[in-house]
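Ticket 4471: requesting a sanity check on a complex prediction with 2-acetamido-2-deoxy-beta-D-glucopyranose. Repro inputs:
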Amino acid sequence: MAKLINIAILSLLFLLSLVSTAKAHEGAIVDISKFGGKNGGCITEALTKAWNKACQSPTPSRVLIPPGSYRAGKVLLEGPCKASIEVEFKGTLKPTEDQIKDDSWIQFNKITGFKLFGGGTFDGEGAKVWEKCKGGGLEKLPMSVKFNFITDGTIEDICSINAKQFHMAVVGCNNVNFNRLRITAPADSPNTDGIHIGQSTNIRVCDSTIGTGDDCISFLGGTKNVSITKVNCGPGHGISIGSLGRYQDEEPLTGITIKDCNFTNTDNGVRIKSWPDRYENAASDLHFEDLTMNNVTNPIIIDQNYCPGKSCAQGHSKVKLNKVFFKNIKGTSANPCAVKLACSSGTCEGVELSEIDLSYNGQDGQVTSECSNVKPNVVGKMNPPACRAPVQIGDKGGGGGSKVGENGKGGGEKKEKNDSGNDFVHGPVPYVLKHSDYGLFNHKMESIDLQKARFVFGYG
Ligand SMILES: *[C@@H]1O[C@H](CO)[C@@H](O)[C@H](O)[C@H]1NC(C)=O
Ligand SMILES: *[C@@H]1O[C@H](CO)[C@@H](O)[C@H](O)[C@H]1NC(C)=O
Ligand SMILES: *[C@@H]1O[C@H](CO)[C@@H](O)[C@H](O)[C@H]1NC(C)=O
Ligand SMILES: *[C@@H]1O[C@H](CO)[C@@H](O)[C@H](O)[C@H]1NC(C)=O
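Returned structure tokens:
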């Protein structure tokens, strides 16, 4: 009898809990249409109001952007919120103006417990402004979606096309997963990097397709423990660590894994780049493994003389690379030199090449590899044979504008190359975070003035 009563009570409690969960959830869905967001209309205000309402909810909440085509100007969706918050984005969003005079278009700031999902598309309509930018002007173009100081987040099933500048930037974030993203822009669109990750920890990008006119994904200083898996990259400049050493106060970068990715018709596959004449920094524990290259110009490249626009004096890079593993990398190179390791003197340690099998898919010549100032540890199959020659100066596609100044044994002739193309200057300071603001991911977010903060995304 007692048992039966217990069961009855438990069942009742269970039912009650179901009812209350449903209610909380129902109450917490904030549809932008309730704030005047209409299909075909501009939702800057509706989205902001819906966000602010949801953000004030003491229980988990969700902002809903229903299917439809919308426009918005600059939108800042900011926390901290009272509970976790989601944005279910089902529509297509385009900017209101041809050119927004801001560093970004849609910004998510200072949120703990965040999810953005729903199959929606951010369409930056970049084609309207790329031409002007290509003309050489350093116009300030906004990046499409920026995630600043997100802790415990998921961004999934989201599409970003034709950003005016970067598609996504991830700054000061911790523990954020990016799944099933589709990011596209034409191969010749300037500065349209897929995802820029800086000053962030525990970031994972998985199951995504990224094809743009610049880096598919790139990592800047202060980034730790990042894993990129199952990404199809191309067209574009490949996946890049760096550029590093361009700015004082950059923080070291460590623990990056790029695994199970395909690169198709990209300028680079996996690349590490640093400036030759600037500041100290370090990158370590870098793992590039199980990668397939399809007609990639520089499948494997370390370029410590990265200097687009020749705005630097030649010299030694002060960026130290340590524990760099290239493992099980197969496929075809569009350039006879498939492996190029251009280090400064004494800056590259613990570089390992294992199970490399790359062939040249052009006519004129055999696949080769070049090294300067580095003796990689070679394990297992190595095709092309490692370090057959010192790095040649200024070969085509040398990392989108690198000029290698220290070619070890002096084997290469000096060819000057006008390399103002390819990696464009990344706008005037799209995001700025002061050095003194570093290390604040979790606790001190409220005290940061994001407008004054100083963090610079450098060259491609
Ligand atoms: C690094 O990330 C992995 C998951 O990608 C996680 O399991 C691990 O705990 C993280 N390491 C640190 C030191 O945070
Ligand atoms: C990479 O290409 C191979 C062969 O076409 C395919 O089997 C694999 O699924 C691709 N990887 C990704 C991440 O799509
Ligand atoms: C291979 O890449 C080169 C250089 O990017 C390009 O010119 C060529 O058309 C590509 N070949 C194929 C088959 O895509
Ligand atoms: C190199 O490119 C720049 C910028 O487009 C141009 O001004 C300059 O004349 C070019 N130099 C050469 C040698 O082609």
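Notes from triage: Helices lie at 2-27, 44-56, 127-134. Leaving this open until the requester confirms.
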